[in-house]
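Hi F.,

I've been meaning to write this up properly since the lab meeting, where we talked about keeping a consistent format for the predictions we share between groups. The idea is simple: the sequence comes first, exactly as it goes in, then the structure tokens exactly as they come out, then a line or two of notes. No screenshots and no reformatting. I'm using this chain as the first example so we have something concrete to point to.
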Amino acid sequence: MGSARIGTTVARAVLHELGDRWDAALRTCSPAAYAWNLLSRRVGERRTESGLHRLLDRNEADALVLRYKLGLSPLEAGHAMGMTPANFEMLRHRALLVLLPSRAW
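Output, unedited:
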């Protein structure tokens, strides 16, 4: 379980960084994905190698966070990560297979 104080500090730092890089973000095909990647990388610097992040790569863990922790639809989560809903679902499915290999998804 993370710290709300640390989470707020990290989010504010990423927003500041995004503001500094806003021109670059607007030149990408998905500014939302650019912003998510900044946040994910910054959070990744603080993560310990336990839980999801010990078993999954950053994108797989992010897919599960977006879908199940934040409750985004595959369309919304895919948009946030800069991918189609179908590609997002493949990533989510792959992550679930690692975590729950005996279940049929």
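Notes:
The chain has a mean pLDDT of 88.
The first helix runs from residue 4 to 20.

If this format works for you, I'll send the rest the same way.

G.
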